[in-house]
């Protein structure tokens, strides 16, 4: 049940597969004879300096993977000098995660029908030293995750959604399908719209990053609404099936943003080469989800440290072999995609 919850996508899982496959259709144009004896991977995200442009996406209920759950992930992110995003539906509270040390963390927010609950969560995240709100905007209703329906997914009895404890929001009780889908239908505000970003800004001074944008149109509206950043995301392909792979949607969003706000990407990142491709297409950084929960399940904090180190090493190698010494040297000219015009037209 737990494996299927982490691994599966919506409906036919076409987008789940495409999130990976699309990367394999983007090829490199490496530059040679560049002095790559020194390579700088540092990135700046919303004004915060981090060791690399690889960050941790919010994934729910991490104690299903390992007893230390989000606390192990937080420590691994700190050790790697990067940002962790904590899910609203974490099995560790914002306060517990904050107690692992004063590092840069974002809080992922679902907007509940009860706005007092939302205000409480945001205030708690602020007090605990979180630096930004990642507002999930692609989930007014939970996608049809058929593995969860078949398994009648529910939270194991020894675990609770720690951030929601004591807030009188009901429980994930066993149902005839997915208890999470039923819970979301009951609790999450389906009327959430662009005006609510203004409302959120009225209750917090934290920057708001809009997570779940896939089109140029929504990018322009997000900027007008005052978003501090955008995460191009399809919720790990768990919401609407047959949306394009996020790496395919990325460039459209980047062009529409016109450099006004940073654009990040999650979905399908499994190697350092994927990170490089995302940056070449205009991403300011990437967030990884499933690699974290699987490495957490395999070996706790050590596992998450290892996966972050592997991605870092592979990304650094890709930079060196592409002739890039810093992130700003990674350009669109370093990749070729299927929508590029042929650079050389063959003579007939």
Write a structural description.
It is found in: Peroxisome. Its EC number is 1.1.3.15. Belongs to the FMN-dependent alpha-hydroxy acid dehydrogenase family. Keywords: Flavoprotein, FMN, Glycolate pathway, Oxidoreductase, Peroxisome, Photorespiration. This is (S)-2-hydroxy-acid oxidase. The protein has 348 residues and is α/β, with parallel strands linked by helices. The chain has one domain (1-337): TIM Barrel (Alpha-Beta Barrel). Helix content is 39%, strand content 13%. The chain is built from twelve helices and twelve strands. It has helices at 2-7, 14-24, 69-80, 94-98, 115-127, 146-151, 179-187, 195-203, 216-224, 246-257, 272-280, 290-322, and strands at residues 27-28, 43-45, 48-50, 54-56, 84-86, 105-109, 132-136, 208-213, 229-232, 263-266, 285-288, 335-336. The strands form three sheets. Strands 4-11-10-9-8-7-6-5 form an eight-stranded parallel beta sheet. Strands 1-12 form a two-stranded antiparallel ribbon. The model has no long low-confidence stretch (mean pLDDT 94).
What fraction strand? 5-15%
> What is the total domain count?
1
How many E-type strands? 12
Distance between the termini: 58 Å
Cofactor: FMN
Catalytic activity: glycolate + O2 = glyoxylate + H2O2
Subcellular location: Peroxisome
GO molecular function: (S)-2-hydroxy-acid oxidase activity; FMN binding
Essential attributes:
single chain; 348 residues; alpha/beta; TIM Barrel; eight-stranded parallel beta sheet; two-stranded antiparallel ribbon; 12 strands
Put the structure in a nutshell.
The chain is of the alpha/beta class. 39% of the residues lie in helices and 13% in strands.
């Amino acid at each position: 049940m737990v494996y299927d919850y982490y691994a599966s996508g919506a409906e036919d899982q076409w987008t789940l597969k495409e999130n990976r496959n699309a990367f394999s259709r983007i090829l490199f144009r490496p530059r040679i004879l560049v002095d790559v004896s020194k390579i700088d991977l540092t990135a700046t995200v919303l004004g915060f300096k981090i060791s690399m442009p690889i960050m941790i996406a919010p994934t729910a209920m991490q104690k299903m993977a390992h007893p230390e759950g989000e606390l192990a992930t937080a420590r691994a992110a700190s050790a790697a000098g990067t940002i962790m995003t904590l899910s609203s539906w974490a099995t560790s509270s914002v306060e517990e995660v904050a107690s692992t040390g004063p590092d840069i963390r974002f809080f992922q927010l679902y907007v509940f029908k009860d706005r007092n609950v939302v205000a409480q969560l945001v205030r708690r995240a602020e007090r605990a030293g979180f630096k930004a709100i990642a507002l999930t905007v692609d989930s007014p209703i939970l996608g049809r995750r058929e593995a969860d329906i078949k398994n009648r997914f529910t939270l194991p009895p020894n675990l609770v959604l720690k951030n929601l404890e004591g807030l009188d929001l009901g429980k994930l009780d066993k149902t005839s399908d997915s208890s999470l889908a039923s819970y979301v239908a009951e609790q999450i505000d389906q009327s959430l719209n662009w005006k609510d970003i203004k409302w959120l800004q009225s209750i917090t001074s934290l920057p708001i990053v809009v997570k779940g944008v896939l089109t140029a149109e929504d990018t322009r509206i997000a900027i007008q609404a005052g978003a501090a950043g955008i995460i191009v995301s399809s919720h790990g392909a768990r919401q609407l099936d047959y949306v394009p792979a996020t790496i395919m949607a990325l460039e459209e969003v980047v062009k529409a943003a016109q450099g006004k706000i940073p654009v990040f990407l999650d979905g399908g990142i499994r190697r350092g080469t994927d990170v490089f491709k995302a940056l070449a297409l205009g991403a300011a950084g990437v967030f990884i989800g499933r690699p974290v929960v699987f490495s957490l399940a395999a070996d706790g904090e050590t596992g998450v440290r290892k996966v972050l180190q592997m991605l870092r090493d592979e990304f650094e190698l890709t930079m060196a072999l592409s002739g890039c010494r810093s992130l700003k040297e990674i350009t669109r000219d370093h990749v070729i995609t299927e929508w590029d015009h042929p650079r050389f037209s063959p003579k007939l």
